[in-house]
Specification:
Strand order of the largest sheet: 3-2-6-5-4
Distance between the termini: 35 Å
Number of strands: 14
Helix content: 40-55%
Radius of gyration: 47 Å
Number of helices: 11
Order of helices and strands: HEHEEHEEEEHHHHEHEEHEEHHEE
Structural class: alpha+beta
Strand content: 15-25%
Amino acid sequence: MEIIKVQQARKSTKLRTMFLGYLAIFCIGTIAFALSLALIFYVLMSYGAILPANYAEKQVLEAKTIIEAGKALQPNSKLDLYKYALFTSDGSLKKGNLSEKQAKAAWSLTQQSDTIYQFPYNYMKVRHNDEVTVMRYSIAAQFELPILRQYMPNAELSFFVVFCIAFLVGVALLASSFGRKLAHKMSGLQQATQQIQAQDLDFSIKLSGVMEIDQVLHSMDKMKETLKTSLQKQWNLEKSRREQIAALAHDVKTPLTIVRGNVDLLSETEQSEEQKEYTDYIAESTKQMEQYIKTLIEMTKAETAATLRAETIDTDFYLAKIKDLILALASPKKISVVFGVYNLPDTLYADPVLLERAIMNVASNAVDQAAEHSEIRMTVETTLERIRFTVLDEGPGFTREALKQAAEQFYMGDSSRRLNGHYGMGLYITKSIVNLHGGTLHIANSTETGGGQVSIEIPISPLST
């Protein structure tokens, strides 16, 4: 027996090492990105694109000096980072760029102290004569461009949000990349499992390069070789057993034929009533033994893969032959047979001998189950490039167990059927023949007759398989 060696990988790496490699790349990339953001932040601040955190506070202190000098504020909405509200001494709002609601809140907050912080703003109150000015500002780095300040009032927070988004994207990319890499490494394991399940053991296992996966692959390779050896022995034993049974059955036929011939000759001689009775017993037993031998030979043939000898068949001529055979089969029980054909092609591509055997097995089962003077229906129709042969009877139908196991080898449902010459091979052989044709066998109970309904469906031509 040929042993196929495992294909060696160049280098074996631990799964932990592979993961740490990905993690190291991710950490290095994260640190590099964080440093890049810090450098960008520093450069932008150096060139004035980002204003320092105390820039607004300086503007407020300058404004305080102006107010205390008795001068009026001249705020510039594009340059100033603070907002203010001018009140009378009793708290009436005179003017400012804070909304009325914001101004009232600022006035209320500054009643206890001239400077106060309430997230996220700082407030400063400045008095001059009978007027009070309250300024609101934020101690945070801000963008110099007003439009950026409008949508991103905190430059530091904006950079932090960018970092967080980039970090999450990096985690997703890392997980996706590592997952694809691991899936690729495990593809050999999956392929080996599928081939072993299909009992296709003539393949070589290619190592993944990952130590933990390769250990499993090595174990699977040993299991594969052990299984292959075991199956080969089993196949050889089965083949030998079949050959021995077939040879024995063939050898028994010769003396049995001699016995049958002598019994026939003996029955033609003058005999007493008692001798005739004994002769009839021998003849009947010989006939029964011949049936057993025939069944035994069929069983050994069924276990051996049949060869499909498909050819183009004239559909009408072939169905006429099948019809005559079924009528002859049903005649002893006076069963009427109704045939129906629909949308049939002129020719059919199949093995005429095997297909006839499959159809007749189904018809024979229907006749056995049907009562005398009942009816059997056979329909032949074409659907979607496939031809279907369906046989319905008016018998008791299939049991729930039989619907699942009727096509299994040696399944008889009722053990008394053995007395009638049945050995649970008919539908099993039929299914094997249908499979050879690339078709399907359907077993059900008819909603019309209540009896069994068995359908053989095969492709019309090789192109439609």
